[in-house]
Amino acid sequence: MQNADHIISLTKAGKFEMLKWGIPNLTPDKIQVIPCAADFNLFGLLSSEYQEEAKLNLGFKKDDSVLSYVGSIGTWYLLNEMASFFRLLKQKCNKAKFLMLTPDNTNYIKNISKQHSINLNDVVIKYASRTQLPALACASDFNIFFIKPVYSKIASSPTKLGEMLSMGIPVICNSGVRDVAQIVTETQSGFCIDDFSESTFNRVIDKMLTFKNMDREAIRNKAQKIYDLQCGIKSYLKVYNQLMPTNSREPLH
Fold first, then answer.
1. Residues 6+ apart with CB under 8 A from 61
2. 26 lies in which domain range?
3. How many CB atoms lie within 10 A of CB 23?
4. How far apart are CA 253 and CA 233, in angstroms?
């Protein structure tokens, strides 16, 4: 870092953290914040017609309330806590369903669901390729992801957040994963919790159940200023062109 000409940070919090380390020659102007981008052309705005069609194709009813999770679970994502959240949601909303769009082992997910007394008839687990994902994810009324709030996640920028917001799907997530809480607040795109207690879950669920007539287009438009792939490309090109010797060749486009 001391000898780098430029550094890319995925988060503002990551940039501030690096500047606290006292590294010689590391100044704020050497660090550019560029979050993981989303393809807003692929992940289009969700309409009620598309949502109803997606729900029916997945075996849901049109009036089911679908909570989705998208992506691998791995070691960072907290499936037990997400299952606990869904269990409490189901107690308050009988029409709640859990959609897991993941390449991970279905038996593992089913076992966790059983441990939380979740009826497997309320859980749909499917694998979706990147191109298939928008058509399935648009069944979502809300999307959820809980990530271990550990030190390294100061620099984490979950791509799934940008993808869901590009479709206008509100999210349930946790703080401690910078800059997620700030982005969710700025875009007014859902709820970010500070702990995994049942009382906190129930407070958020009560808010979810009254979160009606959301402006999906407004969520998308606000998120586009942060996550749009084209903005990311332009930001990287600007950095590359700044690093090129002025007499070397024409700027990259």
1. 55, 95
2. 7-36+229-243
3. 14
4. 10
Looking at this protein, which amino acid is placed at residue 224?
Q
Tokens of 176: 């401690």
Question: Greater confidence, 136 or 252?
Answer: 136
Strands (E) across 4-78 are located at 7-9, 31-33, 65-70
Q: Are residues 26 and 126 in the same domain?
A: no
pLDDT at 212 over 90: no
Whether residue 249 is predicted with pLDDT greater than 60 in this model: the reply is no
Residues 28 and 143 in one domain: no
Percent of the chain with pLDDT over 70: 96
Same domain as 69, residue 146: yes
Q: Render pLDDT for 183-208 as a digit per residue (tens, 0 to 9).
A: 998 899 999 999 999 999 999 999 99
How far apart are alpha carbons 104 and 135 in whole angstroms?
19
Are the C-beta atoms of 80 and 116 separated by less than 8 Å? yes
For residue 74, what is the enclosing H or E element? none
Tell me what pLDDT residue 178 has.
Answer: 75
Enclosing H/E stretch for 133: helix 133-137
What is the rounded average pLDDT of the residues 233-240?
94
**Number of domains forming the structure of the chain:** 2
